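User: Teach me something about this protein's shape.
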Amino acid sequence: MNNFFSRRSFVSNFMKLSMVFYVLFFVNSREVLAQSLDAKSYKITHESKQAASDGKLIISLQVPYSGEISVKYEYNGLGNFQKISNLNAINGSLIIENLNPGKYYNVRILSENSSLLNNIDSLIINYGRPLPDNRGERATCGTINFTDCNGNAISKSGLETGKAYNIDNSVSTPCGFEVSSSCTIISKKKWQCIAGNSSSPGAYTDHTITNYSGVGLSALTAARLAWIICHYNVPSSDSDPVALAVWYLTGTGGSANSIYNAAVAAVTSPNGTQNKLVFYKRKYSTNQDFVKWECSNIQKTCQLQNVSLCDGSVSNQGPWMDLRFNGVYQPGYTVLSASIIEYDNGTASIVAQIQNLNNNNIKFNLNVLLSGKNLNGPSHFNTTGGECTTSPKPDWYYYNNMGGTLTGVSGSLMNGAILIINQTSMGTPVQIGTGAAFYSTTAFQLSSWMDMTIVTQPTTGQTITNGGNGTDLYFDIVGCSCSNVSVNAGLDIIKCYGQSTNLTAVGAGGITPYTYSWSNSLGTGPNKTVNPTTTTTYTVTLTDLNSCTATDQVTVVVNPQLNLVIPNDEVCSGANYTKTVQATGGTPGYTYNWSGGLGVGNQKSIPATNGSHTVTVTDSKGCTAIGSFTVTINTLTATASNDGNKVNKR
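Assistant: First, the predicted structure itself:
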């Protein structure tokens, strides 16, 4: 009996040990199968030439495996999910062909039952050499000097008129520009790719300027893109939620995140905004198409900085947020970089990066869209004391609607955090003007109060809690530059001496109403009447509601004065006499026209009778002068007298 139980115990223990062994083997096997591959376990073949899309990846699986395989990965940006199916591994070797160049993240190799075989953290397939370009009859420019979107000096030759170029080969948001017919750089702006599953073009690849249909988008999709562009700023990275929303809209990857859902809810049918977008069509079929990230025409761009105080000094604080980080109350923030762009359609966007005053590793990107610009408040004032501005100034204006996001800066303690800010319950507009942030009587400022909602927590172990008092925006506005404000004084005018002419100026862009101011002591107003005696240039200056200005000139060319002076005549009665007239001044090439049906020419046979005649002379410039003369007939008389002398007769 003891032996029985001893054997039973042995068998039982042996079985237990065997089960542990198999469990450990199974777990370890899964770990081996699922671990990331090092660079020695795969080989990359890069694209042979641009647009060939013949990149190749040869992977040595860490355990023998034969059978069907699928590959999932994120392409050119985290969250842009893609999949390749119906691949086959042979004896632990997998070949993936016809790959686009670009960045691949989290490449997951799955068996036919979706078990994870291997994972590659990231890899890059480089671009091949550019294809030969047949330029045809397009105009090619010489060397052009300009700056990129960051102000870096660039010198480039060989660009073509009527084309658009990406300066860099950023996957998502390159800096781009267009080349005018006169070989100047225009429309320099950040672009956003709209094809998340295509490769980015090499630097200075030319693109065709087109509209939404030219890149294969529907009017509704383009209108929703316009909504995102006007409500969010250009994505800061390939994994930015804005980029992912754009790609999901165009059906090329991305994700149906909150930004995508908001765009779909806000735009249910084409509303005309799609016609304002500018798209750049790819040169090669495997490359991305782009859209210019611009809501409308920019009217004014200003920098934002920490707010000024009543004593004239500048504080180290900008926005204020009622947030707790792991329970610690740290509300104050300083401005690292910030700007406000105002558009001519009554909207504006604020882009800022702010840093906590007490913890330098707490950083947020602030993106706010403003709309509903007007001149009539209502104004709001701080009620906590300390303000030195207590009533609106004449230059204050307002944006009644606002909304935006706060996203944690990558690499900071706030990495992964997303907060929504809006005015839902606060109800206060953004006010802009002298002293509008209350703490200065002379600084040009911006202020508002907004609600705040935490959407996602940071991925760094920090926990954010909302204290409930929202967000206060306080900025000084400095360094403004204006654009898209113009005035046209018309074409130069050529006139004859002594003639009056009208000048008319027409403004465009900016914010109405306009004021017009003329040189040469003409005063103000869009219309003026002038009569210069010599060629004169007049300058008109337009100033819009935001004090943005534009100037134009018009020259009034005065032709030389034409003169015709004709002396009067006294003649004897009788036959006709010959009269010759001669103009002076003006522009030679004179023609003369006589009154009384006498015809043309500068010499005429005039009846010797009392009367008046008029001659009109016209010079080669079409200027005229009139001369008149009179003819007076003199009557001759003879008299006889007797002087008293005697006449003798013979």
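Now, about its shape. Residues 389 and 438 are 5 Å apart (CA to CA). The longest strand covers residues 464-482. If you'd like, I can walk through any region in more detail.
User: That's plenty for now, thanks!
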